[in-house]
Amino acid sequence: MHLPPYSRRRFLGTILATSVAPALLRAKSPNEKLDVVIIGCGGRGSSNMGEIAGAGENIVALCDVNGNNLAAAAKLHPGAKTFTDFRQLYDTFKNFDAVAVSTAEHTHAFATLPALRLGKHVYCEKPLTHNIWEARLIREVARTAKVATQMGTQIHAGANYRRAVELVQSGAIGAVRECHVWVSRAWGLQSKEAAERNHDIVFVTDRPAEAQTPPPYLNWDLFLGPAPERPFHEVYFPGPKWYRWWDFGNGTMSDLGSHRNDLAFWALKLDAPRTIEASAGPAHPEIAPATMSAVYEYGPRGDMPACRLTWHQGEAKPALWTEKKIPQWGDGCLFVGDKGMLLADYDRLALLPEEQFKDFKAPAPTIPESIGHHKEWLLACKTGAATTCNFEYSGGLTEANHLGNVAYRVGKKIAWDAVKLECPGTPEAARFIKREYRKGWELA
């Protein structure tokens, strides 16, 4: 599929629309119930289903390639129709208002795109898509569909993130030209000793040569979906084992980057990076790294100066952390400003140096408290209200996160042309921006 024309002015304008919703189609009055389809019923899907049902909405259809998950969900919602293949669901079942997608990462776009084209509201787990091209496609279609969309970055609804954004944007630490984000999860390609040290539940260094028989409850062919053919093996399934493999996921970068880079993206009004450079040693063709760093260079945005954002995962940490110049939090986001620093996690924050800010009074809150990440989306489905992680905003965040992996897999510093969706001078990056799909699976 050819994407619609996308001018640089339009790109830079739309990606900053963090909480400005498009003119949405009004589905129902706030007091009416939505008829919701659940695609992916286990793990995050089970949690999302519980949130939606707990808000009083109707669960009318269920879909999962895992028969055990499907049976458990059907027991909770016996009136819902059940499917194994979401393509069949979309072909035969039309009487619904909204969809919650919680499949494995490599099928997110395939489960989301048909719903958008049917004019249905969509909640999709993070990361929004498996690659950059898919993210741009979903953003474009969502914009014209005029439905309520939300990516599953649930922490975005937390009060602590909102207070951190207010502090940065009010100038409490001055202009920010440097930001560091780190997560300590170290799952992926590493030594056996490192895997044990980092509590990785799977130690693997290459694709298994032997084939295993899939468990009877799993439709392995449908799990593969658009991914290249390969025999079943227990190192791929169940989740979160699959997320280490490039064919199914993108490792920690796109997974936790959706949560952790979200704060920097929001507070600093980030758009498309100009350049990206990653380091973690030679890239493995099959498996995402456990430990990696990626440096993003961003240009000025409005009254905000150019800045550098560095992502650290696994055993990688910022120099300020390793030199013990800041608190030794296992995960965090550090904004380095002209007048001080702000360190934030999901539920705590600190202005640094502490002595400098001992008499500091935080500004009055300007970002309203959330009614809840799922409830925000459900209200938007009914009334056209704004969502804060709509596919415009979260699509831009997803594209940026994927670029860290593109730079890592290419093995060199890359420039990024967000309009053309290409890395000038680095043609070898193209296959990581968009990939070929298995026969029978197309996004058209």
Task: From the structure above, extract its key features.
single chain, alpha/beta, 8-stranded mixed sheet, 14 strands, disordered N terminus
What average pLDDT do the residues reach? Answer: 93
Q: Note the beta-strand portion.
A: 15-25%
Radius of gyration: 21 Å
- Count every beta strand, where a strand is a DSSP E run of 2 or more residues: 14
The main pleated sheet reads as: 8 strands, mixed
Structural class: alpha/beta
Could you characterize what this model shows?
This protein is of the alpha/beta class. The protein is 31% helix and 16% strand. It has helices at residues 8-15, 44-54, 67-76, 86-92, 108-117, 132-145, 159-169, 192-197, 220-224, 251-255, 257-267, 319-322, 373-383, 391-410, 430-433; strands at 35-39, 58-63, 81-83, 98-101, 121-124, 149-151, 176-183, 275-279, 292-298, 307-313, 332-337, 340-344, 349-352, 414-415. An 8-stranded mixed beta sheet has the order 13-12-11-7-10-9-8-14, covered by helices on one side. A 6-stranded parallel beta sheet has the order 3-2-1-4-5-6, sandwiched between helices. It is globular, with a radius of gyration of 21 Å.
